[in-house]
Specification:
Blueprint: H1 5-17, H2 19-27, H3 32-50, H4 55-71, H5 79-125, H6 137-150, H7 155-164, H8 167-185
């Protein structure tokens, strides 16, 4: 099964939102930052690795630096101060790494959503889509997607969408957009 770009984007977005509480711990010189940041790095690295992003190696490097700060330290610099300094130096590049992975996903999703909206608009104008009260919504959406893939006016756009995201993601975006149009039709 192909990975869902929508799910991956949501998970990475959630990870990016978890940076703020880590920064708050740093501001308070709270040493729990070390364990929480290491957990964040582990989770992020695992998420990227499972989805075959080479940036997982970058995150692993940051994790290694954080661990090294806990093991080796210069006796002239207090251990706590050194650890907080390393955590402080790593938060921004780790966060940027996640954002850099998210950008192309976000662009592909936004492009696909825009194309789906255009396809729906055209299909409604051509009266190719009509809500049937006897049909379940969960059957209606895949039927529309199949029509987009088969109809000569839409199949090129459907193929382009599938080059950007998975079919499951396309169907999810279609469901997100068609809800508004169904209300309009009723």
């Amino acid at each position: 099964m192909k990975l869902s770009y929508l799910d991956l984007y949501r998970k990475l977005h959630d990870q990016s939102l978890n940076i703020r509480p880590l920064t708050a711990l740093l501001e308070k010189n709270d040493m729990t930052i070390m364990d929480q940041f290491k957990d964040w790095l582990n989770t992020t690295e695992d998420l990227l690795r499972r989805n075959k992003f080479t940036e997982s190696n970058v995150i692993a490097g940051y994790r290694g630096q954080l661990i090294a700060s806990q093991l080796a330290f210069d006796r002239r610099v207090p251990k706590k101060k050194r650890q907080l300094a390393v955590a402080s130096e790593l938060i921004e590049p780790a966060s940027k790494t996640v954002i850099d992975v998210m950008k192309p996903l976000e662009n592909n999703i936004a492009t696909s959503r825009k194309m789906i909206k255009g396809m729906l608009s055209t299909a409604y104008e051509l009266r190719l889509i009509e809500w049937n009260n006897g049909l379940l919504f969960s059957e209606f959406i895949p039927a529309i997607w199949r029509m987009f893939q088969q109809h000569r006016a839409f199949n090129t756009s459907a193929e382009k969408i599938l080059s950007l995201i998975t079919e499951e993601d396309a169907i999810q975006l279609l469901a997100d957009e068609v809800e508004i149009d169904i209300e309009y039709q009723l």
